[in-house]
Design goal:
Blueprint (H helix, E strand, L loop, with lengths): L6 H12 L5 H22 L6 H18 L4 H19 L3 H14 L6 H14 L3 H13 L3
Helix pairs in contact: 1-2, 1-3, 2-3, 2-4, 3-5, 4-5, 4-6, 5-7, 6-7
Length: 148
């Protein structure tokens, strides 16, 4: 069957190269959203073994990694991307709640690399925008810090 796609590295490179300055969070979220849309559609069309969940997690993880390289605002970009998920879910025929969880997982995977105060601010922002999702994010962050 098909191959697996390194969407995390692709997204990291695009964000690190194209996202600097005041509009970096919005631009990073736009890049991630476009990559999610293309990634899900492309892997389905290619009958790749990579699931939408895996693609979304990798893309979100890559967005955060790229922002960390350029010292961008991870919280602002994360919220911008999460706000775009309903439309992305509709365009890809994906459950929006599942897509939200996959994005939170991708962000949380990078949380050990983010200063704790920024993770806390991100969690609060997520909870303000998506009631109850901050608690899920905190759980995912704790899980990401556990030894594998």
């Amino acid at each position: 069957m098909g191959e697996r796609y390194a969407f995390d590295e692709l997204t990291k490179q695009m964000v690190a190269q194209q996202c600097r300055g005041a509009d970096a969070p919005a631009r990073a979220a736009d890049i991630a959203a476009a990559t999610i849309l293309a990634g899900i559609r492309g892997t389905r069309a290619a009958a790749a073994p990579q699931t939408p969940a895996e693609s979304v997690r990798l893309i979100t993880k890559g967005m955060v990694a790229g922002l960390l390289v350029v010292e961008g605002d991870v919280a602002a970009a994360g919220i911008e991307l999460l706000k775009a998920l309903a439309e992305l879910a509709q365009k890809t025929g994906t459950d929006p709640t599942e897509m939200l969880t996959w994005c939170l997982e991708g962000i949380a995977e990078q949380s050990p690399l983010i200063p704790p105060l920024k993770v806390s601010a991100l969690s609060s922002a997520i909870d303000r925008e998506f009631m109850g999702a901050g608690m899920l994010f905190n759980t995912l962050c704790r899980k990401a810090k556990e030894p594998r």
